[in-house]
Amino acid sequence: MTWRKGHGRGAGVPRIEVLPADELPAPVPAQAAPVNRRQNGTVSDSESAKALGRKGGVAKASRARLVSALGLSALASDAEFTPYRDAGDEFVRHHLAALAARAGGEVGPGPSSIVASAGLQLAASRFVSDKAAKSGDAKLFHLASTLANDSRQNLLAAYELAVREAGAKPRATGLDALRSKVMKGGT
What we know:
By secondary structure, this protein is mostly helical. It has a domain at 80-187. 59% of the residues lie in helices and 4% in strands. The protein contains six helices and two strands; from the N terminus they run ββαααααα. Helix 3 (82-102) packs antiparallel against helix 4 (109-135) and helix 4 runs antiparallel to helix 5 (138-168). The protein is flat.
């Protein structure tokens, strides 16, 4: 995110904007925690067991239905919007997994919330677009387009925040780095 001078009617007024896609920070690759195993394949130490536990927790969390878990309105299973919402939930799960791959292996609650909002906006956009196609209402087409654009902006903001958070994570230094090196058998 960056400060930009306004344009058009807001000319000269500074505002915070999400960076354009071509100015976003570079992805941060995930740094997998080392898992040490014995010759028989079992986990050899508590740190490796913790790393495997974290990996399982992240996998479980990525399967959570974030949009529903955020406490947003629960719709009846027979509601017209339900299939769109389900597709939006699926989009959120897939997008968070893809985002995690570009943001150091995990996505924090802030970017996750933004992606959940973007998924709901995308689902609403598709729902309104289908309603507009049936009715021919130009205002509904405009609303569908606005929702899709808002979803896109939120996805860009989530990417930027996730990558910045990944880049800001403290790296192992001092005693932690030495412990890691010793655990790996290095000197």
